[in-house]
Amino acid sequence: MTAMPATQTERPTGQAMLRGARGRCPACGQGRLFSRYLKVADDCPDCGEALHHQRADDGPAYLTILIVSHLGAPILLASFMLWRPSAMTMILAFGIGAIVMSLAMLPVIKGGMVGLQWARRMHGFGGRSSSGVGA
């Protein structure tokens, strides 16, 4: 295990992820992380931290699908066993529910992932020492 250079202090991962999940800058916790629904701002409007380095890509979508399906499946089974609704009722209710849950969770998960990347100095968030192109 290698030690961090003396110029770099450790960044609290949990705090950065919570700030990101709340849609705030992982560095200061004040500025807005997103300029639009899922568009990460290039820089924090409060502290000026560069946020354009983030590379969340498809990770938030995969995690959202995983969580929504794992929450929805037992509820779907339980509601069918308890009330025996029609197939169309279940398709509509759980289809709309899955869409609403996914749209609500996507920014939260993406913000947390950006916070994790910032705290771990991934993809250029570490300054000059970690700015390897194509790494």
TrEMBL record:
InterPro entries: DUF983. The chain crosses the membrane at residues 61-83, 90-109. Keywords: Membrane, Transmembrane, Transmembrane helix. The keyword Transmembrane applies. Pfam families: DUF983. This is DUF983 domain-containing protein. It comes from Paracoccus aestuarii.
